[in-house]
Amino acid sequence: MPANPYEKRSGDALVSDDPSRLDLDIVHGFLSRSYWAEGIARETVARSIAGSLAFGLYLEQTGRQVGFARVITDRVTFAYLADVFLLEEERGRGLAAFLMEAILAHPELQGLRRWSLVTRDAHGLYRKFGFVPLASPDLWMELHRPYRGGAA
Ligand SMILES: CC(C)(COP(=O)(O)OP(=O)(O)OC[C@H]1O[C@@H](n2cnc3c(N)ncnc32)[C@H](O)[C@@H]1OP(=O)(O)O)[C@@H](O)C(=O)NCCC(=O)NCCS
Predict the structure, then answer these.
(1) Cα(86) to centroid of ligand 1, in Å?
(2) Ligand 1 centroid to residue 25 C-alpha, Å
(3) Residue 138: CA atoms inside 13 Å, Cβ hemisphere, count?
């Protein structure tokens, strides 16, 4: 756990990288019903968080976690952004954009050579932060083992 968690505020919203603050019920509850990780086990979510730089987005008035994302990274050359979500009732008011801004400003994620992500329909969000489709998709390969029921 970081001695001094990274935090960024915008109005009532707070982004923190403190893993002890994350609400596993919220994160697992969302991911296990998502199109990309349907059926994921709670323990798998917990272990994936432990091996990542994970971010929670909280509303300070209630302290409730309403958003999440995690970055799989060596913190020097490469980062893969995964499991980004906002709870449905909090969407559409810039919170995912604030979460992205906070992640990209994290002091341990500066100067990386490449960021990567996969999305079915949120290209518009990531485009705002400089992400573009693969320039040479024919160079990329993958070994894909979806979770039970997962489509992506
Ligand atoms: C994608 C998601 C995180 C966006 O959250 P949000 O809080 O509604 O997004 P914001 O309000 O911060 O949107 C910021 C900007 O990105 C754009 N944007 C957001 N989601 C978008 C999408 N799916 N497609 C295109 N543009 C999108 C918004 O239009 C907005 O643009 P504007 O500033 O020009 O108005 C949210 O819809 C979500 O959790 N979806 C379900 C999970 C998911 O699909 N996650 C992404 C997996 S890769």
Answers:
(1) 8
(2) 22
(3) 0
CATH of the domain at 40: 3.40.630.30
Q: What is the Cα–Cα distance from 146 to 150, expressed in whole angstroms?
A: 6
One-letter identity of residue 133: P
State the distance from the centre of ligand 1 to the C-alpha of 114, rounded, in angstroms. Answer: 22
Asked, for residue 145, whether it belongs to a domain, the answer is no
Closest CA to ligand 1's atom 35: 94
Q: Does 33 fall in a domain?
A: yes
Residue 138 lies in a domain: no
Query: First-to-last CA distance in the chain?
Result: 31
Q: Which domain holds residue 57?
A: 7-110
Instruction: Convert the pLDDT of each residue in 54-112 to its tens digit.
Output: 999 999 999 999 999 999 999 999 999 999 999 999 999 999 999 999 999 999 999 99
Give me the DSSP letters along 87-121.
Answer: -GGGTTSSHHHHHHHHHHT-GGGSS-SEEE---SS
From the CA of 118, give the closest atom in ligand 1: 48
